[in-house]
Specification:
alpha/beta; disordered C terminus; 7-stranded mixed sheet; about 525 residues; globular
């Protein structure tokens, strides 16, 4: 009975499908069909209409041009260009596209060794498409659950030989990379290269183009902008008479190698002053450090001289073995930056009086790391996609007297007050495996028919012939089996298998695949 209900529900989805929200494969479209109307396009800085195409400029580093059945996406930072054509349509042919990378969309089987795109795809609700991830540095509790419990995503370290095998696997549609020379399956994702905090967050739109969820990306980004502006207004309304100077700082240990002398370097101390960090400081009501000359020093004494008068520091030093994020404390800070008790008593460095922070408050549990210690931090993951939450933290860091309600920080901890790290594990994911497997329904559900059809009266399964199912989030299938020719008996057995005992081995879910169901 349940099987018949599920099949009837799928049939309803197909009957009601509207190409204006179609995110799966298409069949038998007319020559004048536009799969990407304005309502399904990204909103951006500028929009230029030119005959049958629309170009939208997004952030500083990418733009997209919409045609009837495909999109042209340009990453200005990496120079990579993509032609993204809808599943079920012909691959565009043009001499001007010869050096571009083609992808059939929506993407179904994706890999990444980077933490940067993961929270973006979680916000979009398309993380089910990530079948292989290097989890070494990943903090996302739900990705940890997918790997460690649900087994719908597999972990392979990018340094392992198995990584190359997975990249070359026919199942892999795309590999998302931060930088480097792209290969045929690579998608360069340059969010961290864009300058401002909202510029970086707007890269949610870039990924959405590969999944046809631009409307979802617009919604998330608009909400992010609104919240950032709200926190800026709070900071301005509560600004102290003298704004505190806030600095991001870092110590780098010396490195010496006889085998690779070109990599040798002395110890160094530096201020980190990219635009996005300066924005966090200024938006939260602080002042950035005024560096008249250098921001990089090979002498601790010179660095200390330059840091006099700073009210608050955020230490970004990466703790080298045998230290790790969990064990690094104020004593290590004092030693590495060569501060003494006399320096504290002098008052020349106000931050030494209890205002030394780190941006490693939330870390992963290290279960997928080589040494079983905490590696990844949320700062390099969700901290890029949700700047409003980072800014909320910065309000407390910069002016805790005015913002005690924001003391439950996510990214920053005060090591001068011995605040510990917080470990994120799979148990912090609020969703069970079944819920994670069905998330796509909550992102895009085709409109219901009017009136709804009556349930089938025959006890035998309904006869459905060549019905396209654009969205099948409930069916599991082994990764080596294609989805393109599943007969009714196979569908029935897999629905029954899902209902009785969801198989959480290395089986995966069909995401936007098209199944031709035949009797």
């Amino acid at each position: 009975m349940l099987f018949r209900v599920l099949l009837a529900t799928f049939a309803v989805y197909c009957a009601a499908q509207d190409t204006s929200t179609f995110i799966g494969c298409v069949h038998d479209i007319s020559a004048d069909t536009n799969l990407y109307p304005t309502s399904s396009q990204l909103s951006g800085i500028t929009t230029v209409h030119d005959g049958g195409s629309t170009t939208v400029q997004i952030a500083e580093d990418f733009n997209v041009t919409y045609y009837d059945t495909y999109k042209h996406l340009l990453n200005n930072r990496s120079g990579q260009e993509f032609i993204l054509y809808q599943c079920g349509t012909a691959k565009p042919e043009s001499a001007e596209y010869e050096n571009m990378t083609f992808f059939e969309i929506p993407l179904q089987n994706v890999m990444t060794a980077s933490t940067v795109p993961l929270h973006f795809v979680e916000l979009l609700g398309v993380e089910q498409s990530f079948w292989t991830v290097d989890m070494t540095y990943v903090t996302s509790p739900c990705f940890q659950r997918r790997v460690e419990e649900c087994e719908t995503t597999q972990h392979i370290a990018s340094s392992d030989a198995g990584w190359s095998s997975a990249v070359n696997d026919d199942r892999t549609d795309a590999v998302i990379i931060d930088y480097g020379t792209p290969s045929g399956k690579d998608i360069s994702f340059s969010a961290t290269s864009d300058p401002g905090i909202l510029n970086r967050a707007e890269w949610i739109k870039y990924l959405s183009v590969f999944y046809n969820v631009e409307a979802e990306a617009n919604k998330h980004f608009d909400a992010e902008v609104e919240q950032v502006n709200a926190y800026k207004a709070e900071a301005e309304a509560n600004a102290p008479d003298t704004k505190p100077i806030v600095a991001f700082i870092q110590y780098s240990a010396p490195y010496y190698s006889e085998d690779y002398p070109e990599w040798n370097s002395d110890a160094s101390w530096s201020f980190s002053i990219p635009e996005y960090k300066n924005e966090y400081v200024e938006f939260a009501g602080g002042r950035t450090v005024d560096l008249e000359a250098a921001s990089y020093f090979t002498s601790a004494a010179d660095f200390k001289e330059a840091s006099k008068g700073i009210a608050i520091v955020i230490d970004e030093t990466y703790p080298a073995w045998p230290l790790n994020f969990l064990t690094y404390n104020i004593s290590h800070f004092m030693e590495l930056f060569e501060f003494t008790e006399e320096d504290v008593a002098s008052g020349d460095w106000p931050f030494l009086s209890g205002l030394v922070f780190r941006n490693d408050k939330t870390v992963n549990d290290g279960d997928q790391g080589s040494y079983g210690t905490a590696y990844g931090t949320a700062w390099f993951e969700s901290g890029i996609s949700q700047p409003a939450k980072v800014l909320r933290d910065m309000l407390y860091v910069t002016n805790k007297a005015s913002f005690p309600q924001y003391s439950d920080t996510l990214y920053f901890r005060n090591i001068a007050l011995e605040e510990p790290c917080v470990l994120y594990t799979k148990d912090d994911c609020p969703k069970a495996c079944e819920e994670l497997a069905a998330e796509y329904l909550s992102v895009y559900t085709p409109p219901p028919p009017s009136p709804p059809p009556s349930p089938p009266s025959s006890p035998s399964p309904p006869s459905l012939s060549s019905i396209p199912l654009p969205l099948l989030p409930l069916l599991h299938h082994p990764p080596h089996q294609p989805l393109l020719a599943m007969n009714l008996t196979q569908v029935a057995s897999q629905v029954e298998l899902f209902v009785k005992s969801p198989p959480f081995s290395y089986w995966r879910l069909p995401f936007f695949g098209i199944c031709e169901i035949s009797p």
